[in-house]
């Protein structure tokens, strides 16, 4: 199973063309590349691409615009390369989960999801009530999604399955551990017939061949009938490999179990007693957070201006490099700009990763994220500059075909109406008044936002005059 599309793309670029060192396809010695092997095991449903987001974004710090863009970028790559259409979202390492996630996922075509982190107290309560499978209600347009919560996050059932650090492969001992773990899991999930067991952890499978050989032997031994508790009998346990989609589909097809409904956030994250909250992620590395927001606005403007420029452009029958209908934006330039825009979107999506925007990354990784954002900024500005010049010089604009306003060299500071509204409200709350330069937004909605802000200012004024509320509330 693979979750982060970005790292799949990087791996295929670096290693995909190389000869595979593993004969997973049983080709009788025929050499195949890693990419050929990957295509085949996906076809055989032995390997699954989950989620189709470009990176595993943080749900609380990533804007809704950013979340949808992350899906768009990942979906486009997976559809192009693998014709993949994921139905299960894999959110096992995010530092808490936001109530809007079910809505975002359902509107992107997902049918179910797997979560991995919630408050320690909440987790213990749901375990006690066998409630770790539920319908998660977003509270938006009656949107809910079938949800499985990992009781053990995404770790092995025991450290003895960590074959990178444990050399033994004692089949009898490992099957005993699995039997005890499975029986314990039955008590905390409403579905009693099938239990999901995760094999893996962070930075593991360095000794992958040894690990997979032991697991293969384990599965064969469980079906041999030679070990206690394992076999085909009525009260026996069966062990088999499965993709997450196969598992989730089997649960949803079982109509005998009615799941409860859960609303609200699973956050802020608190991983152990006493109250060990991870709230520092909301303020750590503020420069990185600012750079992500700034780049997001710039890329958003690049998308809008590029779309406008393409409206003015005319279809070309050749790549001769000549202007199309008087506009300096031919098919060659459009292809070039599309590549720059896609790359900017990808670099921005990496900034949304839950180890990036939260600021928990190392200093070296932090520098890498910042350099990627700077590259995205550079390419977004090039797109805006090229497209604005093309639009302003077009015959259609000269004819009065569009109401075009050039916003000057500081186009990187053009904001959407939503961000202006946020800034106005913040200024009013802090200072009692607000000032936003009108040249910073060429959206008609800007003025309606200002009207709303004026009304908000009046409300604050009334509160101050009447003394509504008490200090410290």
Task: Please give the CATH class of the largest domain.
Answer: Alpha Beta
Count of helical regions: 14
Give, in spatial order, the strands making up the sheet with the most strands.
1-2-4-3-5
Count of structural domains: 3
pLDDT averaged residue by residue: 81
Q: Largest sheet, described in full?
A: 5 strands, mixed
In the CATH hierarchy, the third-tier topology of the largest domain is known as 7-stranded beta/alpha barrel
Based on the coordinates given, report the CATH architecture of the largest domain: Alpha-Beta Barrel
End-to-end C-alpha gap: 48 Å
Domain Glycoside hydrolase family 38 central: 276-373
Keywords: Glycosidase, Hydrolase
GO molecular function: alpha-mannosidase activity
Organism: Zancudomyces culisetae
Give your account of this protein's structure:
- The protein is 46% helix and 5% strand.
- The protein is mainly α and 473 residues long.
- Pfam families: Alpha-mann_mid, Glyco_hydro_38N.
- One of its GO terms (molecular function) is alpha-mannosidase activity.
- Keywords: Glycosidase, Hydrolase.
């Amino acid at each position: 199973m693979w979750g982060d599309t970005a790292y799949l793309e990087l791996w295929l670029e670096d290693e995909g063309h190389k000869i595979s060192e593993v004969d997973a396809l049983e080709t009788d010695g025929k050499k195949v590349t890693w990419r050929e092997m990957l295509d085949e095991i996906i076809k055989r449903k032995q390997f699954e691409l989950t989620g189709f987001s470009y990176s595993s974004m943080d749900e609380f710090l990533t804007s809704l615009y950013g979340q949808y863009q992350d899906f768009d970028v990942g979906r486009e790559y997976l559809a192009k390369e693998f014709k993949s259409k994921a139905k299960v979202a894999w959110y096992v390492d995010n530092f808490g989960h936001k109530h809007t996630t079910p809505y975002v996922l359902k509107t992107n075509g997902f049918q179910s999801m797997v979560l991995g982190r919630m408050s320690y107290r909440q987790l213990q309560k749901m375990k006690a009530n066998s409630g770790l499978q539920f319908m998660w209600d977003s509270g938006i347009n009656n949107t809910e999604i079938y949800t499985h919560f990992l009781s053990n996050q995404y770790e092995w059932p025991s450290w003895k399955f960590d074959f990178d650090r444990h050399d033994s492969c004692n089949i009898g001992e490992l099957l005993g551990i699995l039997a005890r773990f499975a029986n314990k899991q039955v008590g905390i999930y409403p579905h009693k017939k099938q239990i999901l067991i995760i094999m893996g952890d962070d930075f593991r499978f360095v000794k992958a061949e040894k690990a997979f050989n032991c697991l293969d032997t384990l599965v064969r031994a469980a079906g041999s009938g030679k070990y206690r508790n394992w076999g085909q009998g009525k009260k026996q346990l069966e062990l088999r490999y499965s993709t997450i989609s196969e598992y989730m589909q089997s649960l949803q097809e079982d109509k005998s179990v009615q799941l409860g409904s859960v609303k609200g956030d699973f956050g802020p994250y608190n991983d152990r007693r006493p109250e060990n909250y991870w709230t520092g992620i909301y303020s750590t590395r503020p420069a990185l957070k600012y750079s992500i927001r700034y780049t997001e606005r710039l890329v958003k403007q690049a998308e809008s201006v590029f779309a406008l420029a393409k409206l003015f452009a005319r279809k070309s029958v050749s790549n001769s490099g000549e202007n199309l209908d008087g506009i300096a934006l031919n098919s060659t330039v459009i292809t070039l700009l599309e590549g720059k825009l896609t790359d900017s979107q990808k670099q921005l999506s990496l900034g949304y990763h839950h180890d990036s925007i939260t600021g928990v990354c190392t200093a070296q990784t932090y520098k890498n994220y910042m350099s990627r954002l700077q590259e995205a900024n550079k390419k977004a500005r090039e797109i805006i500059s090229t497209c604005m010049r093309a639009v302003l010089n077009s015959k259609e604009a000269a004819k009065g075909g569009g109401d075009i306003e050039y916003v000057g060299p500081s186009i990187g500071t053009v904001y959407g109406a939503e961000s202006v509204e946020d800034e106005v409200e913040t200024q009013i709350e802090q200072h009692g008044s607000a000032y936003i330069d009108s040249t910073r937004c060429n959206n008609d909605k800007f003025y309606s936002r200002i009207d709303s802000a004026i009304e908000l200012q009046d409300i604050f004024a009334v509160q101050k005059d009447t003394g509504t509320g008490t200090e410290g509330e």
